Amino acid sequence: MKKIILLFFIPFFMSACSLIPRGEVPAPTATYSWEEHQLNVSQMTRWVATGKIGIRTPDDSQSASLSWQQDQQAYEISLKGPLGQGGATISGDQHSATLEIPGEQPMAAGSPEELLSLRLGWEIPVKDAQYWIKGIPAPGSDYDTVLYENRLARLTQQGWEIEYQNYLEADETSLPGKLTLSRESLKLTLIIGNWRRID
């Protein structure tokens, strides 16, 4: 069962470190209901998001450039910078996943979660994160939300807490510009500089 809380005021700080062309555009006062916004975003199934990611664990802290391309259930997520500056690319669909790191043999598994856990020790729910990064809950499991102007300010799902610091206007849709994902001792910070729908 989901739980939705509407906040009438949350003092958001609009970060100025976005990479979006012509500067970051904060989301305007909401003109759509949460249900309308959620439906609109859920229909966006082919997209590319680029920016930066920071990953913090008790033993390490890394940052990288991020490129996430989603085409229905197929995805390709590229990180450039961590892992000895070599980066990593994880790609696949609902049936399988492949992890490629320069200088190593590609690894394959049934899911991206299994690959990241085995090779990097990160317990990251990639299949759910494809929804979280767009500012909507993942289908199929319970969640709690806090809304601000009919957009997510905070989402709790699958043991993860996702906080949304700001939004960008992309193709007439409000999409996250900065968000953090936290669970136990793992924290990810995503700064999205550019959103693009794939035609």
Would you kindly provide a brief summary of this structure?
Keywords: Cell outer membrane, Chaperone, Lipoprotein, Membrane, Palmitate, Protein transport, Signal, Transport. The protein is mostly beta strands and 199 residues long.
Which oligomeric state applies?
A: single chain
* Radius of gyration (Å): 16 Å
| Average of per-residue pLDDT values | 84
Strand order of the largest sheet: 1-8-9-10-11-12-2-3-4-5-6-7
Compute the number of helices.
3
The largest sheet is: 12 strands, mixed
Q: Which second-level CATH architecture applies? A: Clam
Q: In the CATH scheme, what's the topology name? A: outer membrane lipoprotein receptor (LolB), chain A
Structural description of this entry:
The N and C termini lie far apart (35 Å). It contains 3 helices and 12 strands, in the order βαββββββααβββββ. It has a single domain, classed as Lipoprotein localisation LolA/LolB/LppX (outer membrane lipoprotein receptor (LolB), chain A, Clam). Residues 1-26 have low confidence and may be disordered. With 199 residues, it is mostly beta strands. 13% of the residues lie in helices and 47% in strands.
